[in-house]
Write a structure and sequence with these properties.
Layout (H helix, E strand, L loop, with lengths): L4 E4 H4 E3 L10 E5 L10 E2 L4 E3 L4 E4 L3 E4 L10 E4 L6 E4 L3 E6 L6 H9 L1 H8 L2 E2 L6 E2 L8 E4 L2 H42 L6 E4 H4 L1 E4 L14 E5 L1 H6 L7 E3 L7 E2 L4 E4 L5 E4 L5 E3 L3 E5 L5 H10 L1 H10 L9 H6 L1 E4 L2 H41 L7
Parallel strand pairs: 3-9, 4-8, 16-21
Antiparallel strand pairs: 1-13, 2-10, 3-5, 6-9, 7-8, 7-10, 11-12, 14-23, 15-22, 16-17, 18-21, 19-20, 19-22
Helix pairs in contact: 4-10
Length: about 375
């Protein structure tokens, strides 16, 4: 690292650069919710007329400056901006490389490094409510960083892993869309009148999670991370809670299990992470009779209806009740027809689970390499 140079972060990176908007038309707009935790790219879909907010251009890094979004890893590089310009929430800091000093891709990975994130989190301001990072704090962060050419090599290694992860995510999105198309064809467009009509609650078991705060770890060995609603999107992280494994085995979640969040942000997913413990406000959905694809897609089919029910509840946290599962009806074909359907649709789900495993492996490799490359512990050859 002898040839690495010490920089003040705000000298190495332009923080909140000036961006000139061309006229008063509509531009790509990014909200905090658009930043998918753990994903590299943020591709805006929405458009709005310009107003106050963070302004950015293609390949800039959006860095959440508010708690708990920063702790949850809401840091993304912007791609696919129409006209190369966009704007968004005032809760973003915008980072951009400086010509011949810092590479944009390297700046993105640098901002994901714990040295930078941890420094920002240590400089939250405010005593109540949501705390925020002031951009001026980066005047006080000093780091030894590589020359421009080595930055490009480092970001190329990390980008290659992110690109593979992105391809697998896209494959899974396509596979799920194909499965949903078949489901819609069978059960909406071509449904048979003689098929049984049963409550959703009768085709699967909906196991509610535990109040995990009441079962803290007894030691450093017999414990697992807790799966809460926020982990459904961001995955298990250093900020996740832990609980004792001294519980019934059915409360332990494994890769490929179907999870239904019935409170707050209602969603249905196939879990693609490490073993963890099911928290309250989540159902683990299983069946000894019907295949996974069948009860998973029926849960998704009724999801919009459940979201509407949840929104109608005059409570601080919208939710559904078990009675709503009883009222959601499911069409059940004959055993022979269900077997034929399974032959056609199950390979999509098998492939998605395999892809999820590869995503997790590549993500772990990237997250292991990133701090080593940023600190110079691992060097790239010229």
């Amino acid at each position: 690292m002898n040839e690495w140079k010490e920089y003040r972060f705000s000298d190495f990176v332009t923080v909140n650069p000036n961006v000139s908007l061309k006229g008063a038309g509509e531009y790509s707009f990014v909200e905090m919710k658009d930043l998918q935790d753990g994903n590299k790219f943020c591709v805006p879909n929405a458009k709005r007329k310009t107003s106050s907010g963070a302004r950015f251009q293609e390949k800039d890094t959006l860095f959440a400056r508010i708690t708990p979004c920063l702790e949850n890893g809401k840091i993304c590089q912007v791609r696919g901006l129409e006209n190369g310009i966009g704007f968004g929430s005032t809760e973003f800091l915008v980072f951009r490389g400086k010509e011949k000093i810092s590479d944009n891709d390297f700046v993105f990975y640098l901002s994901r490094w714990d040295e930078v994130r941890g420094f920002a989190e240590g400089n939250f301001e405010g005593t109540s409510g949501r705390q925020r990072v002031n951009k001026d704090c980066f005047d006080n962060l000093f780091l030894k960083l590589p020359k421009y050419n080595e930055q490009i090599q480092i970001s190329s290694i990390l980008s290659s892993l992110d690109d593979k992860i992105d391809i697998l995510h896209r494959q899974n999105k396509t596979l799920e869309q194909l499965a949903e198309t078949l489901f819609r064809q069978w059960f909406v467009e071509e449904a048979e009148e003689n098929w049984d009509k049963l409550p959703l609650s009768s085709i699967a078991d909906f196991l509610n999670g535990l109040a995990c705060q009441k079962i803290p770890p007894k030691n450093e060995f017999d414990k697992l991370p807790v799966l809460k609603i926020k982990e459904l999107g961001s995955g298990i992280s250093i900020n996740s809670d832990w609980a004792s494994t001294d519980i019934k085995p059915e409360y332990i979640i494994k890769n490929g299990d179907v999870i239904f969040a019935w409170s707050a942000s209602l969603m249905v997913i196939i879990w693609n992470g490490e073993d963890c413990i099911l928290n309250q406000h989540l159902f683990k959905v299983t069946s000894k009779v019907y295949p996974k694809w069948f009860y998973y897609l029926w849960c998704k089919h009724h999801l919009d209806e459940f979201i509407s029910i949840s929104a109608s509840h005059a409570t601080t946290m919208g939710h559904i009740k078990r009675g709503d599962l009883d009222n959601a009806m499911v069409l059940v074909p004959t055993n022979e027809e269900l077997k034929k359907m399974t032959i056609n649709i199950e390979p999509f789900f098998d492939k998605m689970i395999i892809n999820h495993t590869q995503i997790r492996t590549l993500t772990q490799l990237r997250d292991t390499l990133l701090p080593k490359l940023m600190s110079g512990e691992v060097r790239v050859k010229n």
